[in-house]
Structure formats: C-alpha cells, structure tokens
C-alpha cells in the first residue's frame, strides 16, 4: 500500500524500455494501432510498483473502487517498427476529486523522436455499484505525490504533441 513520505521525492514520470514484437505488427512491419494501448498500459503497470511501492490491485481491494477509462485521445506521430527498441513514458497530468488524466508517450530508444502520444481520462468508480466516487486516503496521497496537476485549460492534445516534440528535440 502506498505510504506518503513527505521527505521522499516521488518521480512524476515513469519510463520503460521495450522492444516492438513481431506478433504485434501489421504486414508493413508497423506496430498495430490497437497494440499501442497494450504497450502503454503494460509499461505503466510494470513501473508504478517499482517507483512508488504501489500495486494498484491493493488500492482496489482496500477502497473497493477502481479507475475506469471513459476517454482516449491518441496521436500517431511516427510508426514504431518491428524489432525496434522504444521508450515509453507515462505520467498523471491532472486529477481532481474523482478523475485523472494520464499521459503516455513513446519515443525511439535514444529519445530523439516522438512516436505516439496517448491521453486516457479515467473516472474513479465503486466496484459494487459502478458509480463515481471520490479519491480518498492512500489514493489521494498517491495522486498528490505523483500528479503534475497541470491546468487543463492550458492543455489540448494537438498542442501537447507539438510541445512534446519540441521538448524531445531539445533533449528536455
């Protein structure tokens, strides 16, 4: 279970290095569009426990609630190719009392070329009724410690892709 420590630095971004598998590609050797979701979600699922000591299933068991995706916005910038090593980063851009916006993005292995950006908006809902509920306890502590909590008024997916491309070209 996540235990907030005010003296600890919590990274705001996760990062994984993965290879694009043959079975996940189309005949043109590009990563299949639907498979990007698997790569993004698996990378975050692998990294959150390492960085934060948190298994999401523990939060689900304790609070009897989970995040449910209600919107995806994906921008395919450059294709990921079979056999290519890529970097996958993820971070919580924003949260409020019952919703989070998670950003995932993929670059080439050297982090010089943006490949894809995904925004997933998720609502926190009870397992029993499937109704929206507020973040509380360790869930809220985790969000406060790890979310960038950017102003959504200043964000839109198209401009975010441009911003990430510029950051990557400049080497962050």
UniProtKB/TrEMBL annotation:
Pfam families with a match to the protein in the record: 4HBT_2
Domain of life of the source: Bacteria
Keyword Hydrolase included in the entry's annotation: yes
TM region(s), chain numbering: none
Keywords, in A-Z order: Hydrolase
Example GO molecular function: hydrolase activity
Protein's name according to its UniProt entry: Acyl-CoA thioester hydrolase
Species of provenance: Algoriphagus boseongensis
């Amino acid at each position: 279970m996540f235990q907030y420590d005010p003296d600890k630095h919590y990274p705001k971004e996760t990062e994984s290095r993965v290879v694009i598998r043959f079975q996940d590609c189309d005949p043109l050797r590009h990563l299949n569009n639907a498979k990007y979701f698997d790569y993004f979600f698996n990378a975050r699922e692998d990294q959150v426990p390492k960085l934060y000591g948190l298994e999401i299933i523990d939060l689900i068991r304790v609070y009897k609630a989970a995040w449910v995706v209600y919107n995806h916005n994906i921008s395919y910038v450059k294709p990921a190719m079979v056999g290519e090593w890529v970097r996958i980063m993820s971070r919580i851009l924003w949260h409020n009392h019952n919703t989070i916006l998670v950003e995932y993005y993929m670059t080439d292995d050297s982090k010089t070329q943006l490949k894809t950006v995904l925004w997933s908006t998720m609502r926190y809902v009870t397992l029993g009724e499937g109704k929206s509920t507020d973040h509380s306890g360790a869930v809220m502590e985790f969000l406060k410690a790890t979310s960038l909590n950017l102003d959504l008024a200043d964000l839109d997916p198209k401009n975010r892709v441009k911003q990430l491309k510029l950051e990557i070209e400049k080497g962050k």
